[in-house]
């Protein structure tokens, strides 16, 4: 009986192709909204999490808002490493400069720091070396540039020993960082690292007073102890004013991002779910029209022996068939859209369909087919054979 009902439902769907397609359109749009929106949110958040994780899970970043007349100096930052829980500490200040060579020029982000910064942030060298203590002490005009700046301004990667002009001041290139996914001319990710003391001379908006520095714990297990040490040190320095500084824990940032991601996916999923409900209402509306149009067919089937359950099953299967076909087309179109977005986006983020999201879309489509198909199917099954045969349309 089920096989016969499926055949009849398939025949009914094909007999009105345009109407069937328009009926499925609501489900197609709903599934596309659900899969695409949730996948975009998930892909973007995963990319951000990966970038955060690449900096290490034992990283602390400290920002000073009010030094209370007792500003941090380079030696104060270095002194933090005397604690057993802290492996490395490095000040960091940022500015913007014009990087120039005879090949080209670009606006670049320049960071003043010390040699420990590379180890804390996990920076990898393509060639050359990073900053040393003597560079900081002697205010040496040396620079480490990233791959994007090397290629765009110098024209190639092998430029160690050559000079580059930063806001009109010549700096000797002592190192080039390895390329990563952000080093492309489309993202304009041009970065340079010079001694902190040299940046104080180069940039008018940077002073010898440290307002930001980063710290790495000796291990992931000692991160909490390292955070407590840094917090206590800052509290003692800044008159027990917790608002004078901020200590950002990398693990806390990742946990916050995970929470934001879950909330965002639930919100987008809810919006897409509304589209699916609208599509379900469309299916119920068309099925009610179909029941009315096929009243005589129902009467004939009942007259030759079809029972109520057989009639109900036929129309219920037809509603589910419309819903599932719309779901399948929506999934195929979602996959296509995600592939196109992944190919053209400038951030090199790969968006993929989650099996869980696809499963939810299919389950929700089945549920919609059943819920919004039950009433028309039940209405068809309750018709009396005599009344159905007399129906003139």
Please, could you describe this protein's structure?
By secondary structure, the chain is of the alpha+beta class. Helices cover 56% and strands 17% of the residues. It contains 13 helices and eleven strands. It has helices spanning 2-15, 17-54, 74-79, 116-121, 133-137, 147-154, 196-202, 223-237, 250-293, 295-303, 308-344, 355-381, 385-390, and strands spanning 59-64, 86-91, 93-100, 105-113, 125-128, 142-145, 163-166, 169-177, 191-195, 212-217, 245-249. A six-stranded mixed β-barrel has the order 3-4-9-6-8-7. Strands 2-10-1-11 form a four-stranded antiparallel sheet. The longest helix is centred in the C-terminal third of the chain and has 44 residues, at 250-293. The protein starts with a helix and ends with a helix. Mean pLDDT is 84; it is low at 182-187.
Task: Label this structure with key terms.
single chain, 393 residues, 13 helices, 11 strands, 17% strand, six-stranded mixed beta barrel
Give a topology summary.
Layout: H1 2-15, H2 17-54, E1 59-64, H3 74-79, E2 86-91, E3 93-100, E4 105-113, H4 116-121, E5 125-128, H5 133-137, E6 142-145, H6 147-154, E7 163-166, E8 169-177, E9 191-195, H7 196-202, E10 212-217, H8 223-237, E11 245-249, H9 250-293, H10 295-303, H11 308-344, H12 355-381, H13 385-390
Parallel strand pairs: 4-9, 6-8
Antiparallel strand pairs: 1-10, 1-11, 2-10, 3-4, 3-7, 5-8, 6-9, 7-8
Helix pairs in contact: 1-11, 2-9, 2-11, 2-12, 9-11, 9-12, 11-12
Oligomer: single chain
The average pLDDT is: 84
Number of helices: 13
Share of residues in helices:
55-70%
**What is the chain-wise order of helices and strands?**
HHEHEEEHEHEHEEEHEHEHHHHH
Compute the separation of the termini in Å. Answer: 28 Å
Main sheet makeup? 6 strands, mixed, barrel
| Strand percent estimate | 15-25%
Number of strands: 11
Alpha-carbon Rg, integer: 33 Å
Give the spatial strand order of the biggest sheet. 3-4-9-6-8-7
- Overall SS class: alpha+beta
Specify the overall morphology.
elongated
Show unreliable segments.
182-187
